[in-house]
Automatic annotation (TrEMBL):
<dbReference type="Pfam" id="PF13483">
    <property type="entry name" value="Lactamase_B_3"/>
</dbReference>
<keyword id="KW-0378">Hydrolase</keyword>
<dbReference type="InterPro" id="IPR036866">
    <property type="entry name" value="RibonucZ/Hydroxyglut_hydro"/>
</dbReference>
<feature type="domain" description="Metallo-beta-lactamase">
    <location>
        <begin position="7"/>
        <end position="177"/>
    </location>
</feature>
<protein>
    <submittedName>
        <fullName>MBL fold metallo-hydrolase</fullName>
    </submittedName>
</protein>
<dbReference type="GO" id="GO:0016787">
    <property type="term" value="F:hydrolase activity"/>
</dbReference>
<dbReference type="InterPro" id="IPR001279">
    <property type="entry name" value="Metallo-B-lactamas"/>
</dbReference>
<dbReference type="InterPro" id="IPR050114">
    <property type="entry name" value="UPF0173_UPF0282_UlaG_hydrolase"/>
</dbReference>
Length: 215
């Protein structure tokens, strides 16, 4: 597995011959010139996960990519997109994709909840080689190997992120969703996740716009 982090929640996953891009949002950068994608997966409709300005050009540059999103985002983006509900399983090349979760984390009781599809990538024997939860703290029943963990968000306390990391207990955790925090402050979040995460989990901060092998 190779991962490239384009900032915030946008991650390119290269697994078993497939190139899958998650959440190209307006806090992310460097994904604009990507071609040869097999799929674009969007967790939910917020612009920091689906940039309305740059997404159309990305889709046009990747005519062979499957387009998948949560049901509400699919309705907004049009019929070219396929809705992914919790429990849906489909393939992108040799990679099995499982939709799970279903709901965005609570921002405030007065803010309506929206759809949020979390995704598992893997195969029949290991269906959760990687999990991208979007803006949720959903704990799947499958054993997760690599977790893209939200590090900071308006809806998230650091204690919740730590408890989520403990609950999922992946082999490797890579922080995402840090675009809302100044660069000089991100070490506070990473340090707590490292110090207070479960034993046996490696927190690996990915360099932005650089491909890294995770094995």
């Amino acid at each position: 597995m190779r991962l490239t982090h384009f900032g915030h929640s946008c991650v390119l996953v290269e697994l078993d011959g497939a190139k899958i891009l998650f959440d190209p949002g307006n806090f992310s950068h460097g994904f604009e010139g990507i071609t040869g994608l097999d799929a674009i997966l969007i967790t939910h409709q917020h612009p920091d996960h689906a940039d309305p300005e740059r997404l159309p050009a990305l889709v046009e540059a990747n005519p062979g990519a499957g387009l998948y999103a949560d049901p509400q985002t699919t309705a907004l983006l049009g019929e070219a997109w396929t809705a992914v509900y919790p429990g849906d399983v489909f393939n992108v090349g040799e990679v099995q994709v499982t939709g799970t979760g279903g709901t965005h984390a609570v921002i405030h009781p007065e803010v309506p909840l929206i759809d949020n599809t979390a995704y598992l990538l893997g195969d029949a024997e290991s269906p959760a080689k990687l999990m991208h939860p979007g803006d949720s703290l959903f704990v799947p029943e499958q054993k997760v190997d690599v977790l893209a963990i939200p590090a900071a968000a308006p809806w998230l306390k650091i204690s919740e992120s730590i408890d989520y990391l403990r609950a999922v207990h992946p082999r490797v955790a890579v922080p995402i969703h840090q675009g809302v925090v100044a660069r000089e402050a991100r070490g506070i979040y990473y340090g707590r996740l490292t110090e207070m995460g479960p034993g046996g989990t490696e927190l690996r901060v990915l360099p932005e716009e650089s491909s890294v092998e995770v094995s």
